[in-house]
Amino acid sequence: MNYFLELLPSLLSGLKMTLGVFFFTIIGSIPLGIIVSLGMKSEYFTIRWLINGYIWIMRGTPLLLQLIFVYYGLGMMGISFPRFEAAIIAFIINYAAYLAEIFRGGLQSVPRGQYDAAKVLGFTKIQTFFKIVLPQVIKIVVPSFGNEVINLVKDTSLVYVIGLGDILRAGNIAASRDVTLIPYLLVGLIYLIMTAIVTVLLRRTEKRLNIWR
Amino acid sequence: MVSMKKKIVVNSIIGLLFVGIVVWLVIGLSAGAKHNSQANQETSKTDEWQRIKQDKQITICLDDTFVPMGFRDKDGKIVGFDVDLANAVFKTMGITVKWQPIDWSMKETELNTGNIDAIWNGYTKTAAREKQVAFSNTYHNATQVLVTLKKNNINSFSDMQDKVLGDQTASSGDESFNQHPKVLKQYVKDQKVVGYDTFDKAFNDLNAGRIDGLLIDEDYARYYVAHQTNPKNYTVTVGGFSVDETAVGFRKSDNQLRQAVNQTLSQFKKDGRMKHIENKWFSN
Question: Any idea where the ABC transmembrane type-1 domain is (chain A) (predicted)?
Answer without folding.
Answer: 15-202
